[in-house]
Design brief:
Layout (H helix, E strand, L loop, with lengths): L2 H25 L9 H14 L15 H13 L3 H26 L5 H13 L1 H8 L4 H14 L5 H13 L1 H4 L3 H16 L4 H25 L2 H10 L3 H12 L14 H17 L8 H19 L8 H17 L3 H28 L6 H11 L5 E4 L4 H7 L2 E4 L6 H4 L2 H6 L2 E4 L4 H8 L3 E8 L22 E6 L1
Parallel strand pairs: 1-2, 1-3
Antiparallel strand pairs: 3-5, 4-5
Helix pairs in contact: 1-4, 1-5, 2-3, 4-5, 4-6, 4-7, 5-16, 5-17, 7-8, 8-11, 10-11, 10-15, 14-16, 14-17, 15-16, 18-19
């Protein structure tokens, strides 16, 4: 009888923690970080649909993400704004934390309440996870799907477990093709460690993902988007191998968006390695246990993603979440104080890097970061009958007022995708000053600067230094109109 009040108390603490995480990140969503080009790409199909322009990016038919579909009812419910779009990803990441906690509890991977709370704290402060859920992409949704898969494995009834695994994996290709290597890696490591013990679960998951992939290809074929989708996949192939080839030839490592620039991850990985070595040497755990499994999974996933495509910072949650679970599992078993203190110190450094670095970057030029500045500026220079070409900074603000908006998309020359009629329809351009010449040349025609500019009061602490998401460009905007 005494266990129930303790369980209820833990549930209350966990809910309070998750609600705090959700509210804090949603309420500060427009302050940090600066707008990212990917978030506009995945928000545009939903926004275009709600503007009566059909589902998609009208000059770029590649996007067919399940997350973009889910944004339609979300925006209908909470309205269209930068905060609303970013809050959707925060909500899914918060849900992922909840499923992870519940699964860990059911598996009894972490026996002590204090270490389960530490696990949530590590997840909520890890640099890559904060990046993933605050830049408005769909990574929180992916984390939620895999956390739900993790929880499904804890269901005791086999038939129910298999149905859940099939149903969730059915949606993985629709959520993003990068999730298929994650599923394959988890299955491969599960087979290496446990042989045929989980063959039913693995086969069911792979069949679900295969059926989902077939459905996605069929939908793309019927809609006429398959050639562009395949071309997009082709542009993402072997980026990691190309980066390594350039590095070996020239000695220059151009790692941007290819390997994770995650300042927390090394500390979290080090804590897992320290605990694994100690627990294995003391024979407290066997090779077929949580820590060795997690380390093998992380190493294999990194290699597979880097060889097949890339492993950017916003994918680091794919390894950070299982590492946080493994570290807290190891701490709950550790008996030697010196090892425990070392692991605790590494956990502290992990959280400090995640929260501290982001806080320092924000505090350095906080006065320039509020998106309200951008919204007021854009509202003063755009008319309701304008058709605008914008980059990521003014996108949300322009979408709220202009008749239509064309925006940049990653890895593509959009001017070649736009028809002559679409290029000629643009009446106003709002871009960073260094992108103005490219935009005007791509659109063609005669343009003049209106003299309206939005400029920051100072340059950011790490801006332009190639340090990942803490070096994102600021909200500079220059305005041009046709003569």
């Amino acid at each position: 009888m005494k266990e129930f009040p303790a369980m209820h108390r833990e549930l209350l603490y966990v809910l309070l923690f998750l609600v705090t995480f959700l509210v804090f990140n949603a309420s500060t969503a427009t302050l940090y970080p600066y707008p990212h080009i990917d978030e506009t790409t995945f928000a545009e199909p939903a926004i275009a649909y709600l503007h009566g322009q059909g589902f998609g990016i009208h000059h770029f038919p590649q996007n067919f993400s399940l997350y973009s579909f889910l944004l339609v009812p979300w925006i209908q419910l909470f309205g269209f704004s930068m905060r609303s779009v970013r809050s959707a990803d925060v909500f899914f990441m918060t849900s992922a934390f909840g499923f992870v906690w519940f699964a860990v509890l059911r598996f009894n991977f972490v026996s002590r309440f204090s270490y389960r709370i530490l696990m949530l704290f590590l997840l909520a402060t890890e640099f890559g996870i904060l990046v993933s859920c605050r830049i408005g992409r769909y990574d929180g949704f992916g984390a939620c799907l895999f956390s739900l898969l993790f929880w499904s494995m804890s269901v005791k009834r086999l038939i129910v477990r298999l149905i859940l695994l099939f149903a969730i994996c059915l949606f993985l290709p629709w959520a993003g093709l990068q999730y298929l290597p994650v599923l394959f890696t988890a299955g491969a490591v599960l087979f290496m460690f446990f042989r045929g013990c989980y063959w039913k679960e693995m086969m069911t998951s792979f069949l679900g993902a295969g059926a989902g992939g077939a459905g996605l290809i069929s939908a793309l074929f019927v809609s006429g988007r398959l050639p562009e989708y395949l071309h997009f996949i082709h542009t993402q192939k072997y980026l990691g191998l190309k980066m390594l080839a350039v590095w070996f030839r020239s000695g220059h490592l151009e790692h941007s968006n290819i390997i994770p620039v995650d300042y927390s991850l090394p500390f979290l990985l080090a804590a897992a390695v320290v605990l694994a070595i100690y627990l294995l040497r003391q024979k407290i755990i066997q090779w077929r246990s949580v820590l060795p499994f997690t380390l093998a999974y992380c190493a294999l996933l990194f290699c597979i993603l880097l060889v097949s495509s890339k492993f950017p910072t916003y994918y680091s949650y794919m390894v950070a979440i299982p590492l946080a679970v493994a570290v807290c599992h190891g701490l709950s078993l550790c008996r030697l104080n010196s090892v425990k203190y070392a692991a605790w110190m590494l956990c502290f450094l992990c959280a400090s890097a995640g929260v501290g670095i982001n806080a320092a970057v924000y505090a350095d030029n906080w006065q320039d970061r509020s998106y309200n500045r951008v919204e007021k500026f854009v509202s003063s220079v755009i008319r309701v009958d304008d058709i605008a070409f914008v980059d990521q900074a003014p996108y949300y603000a322009a979408r709220m007022k202009a008749r239509d908006v064309f925006s940049q998309i990653p890895d593509w020359d959009i001017f070649q995708l736009m028809s002559a009629e679409q290029r000629n329809s643009i009446t106003v351009v709002l871009v960073r000053p260094e992108k103005a010449e490219m935009a005007i040349r791509g659109l063609g025609g005669a343009w003049y600067p209106t003299g309206d500019k939005l400029a920051p009061s100072k340059k950011g602490l790490f801006e332009g230094k190639g340090l990942g998401f803490i070096s994102l460009p600021d909200n500079q905007i220059q305005v041009f109109r046709r003569r």
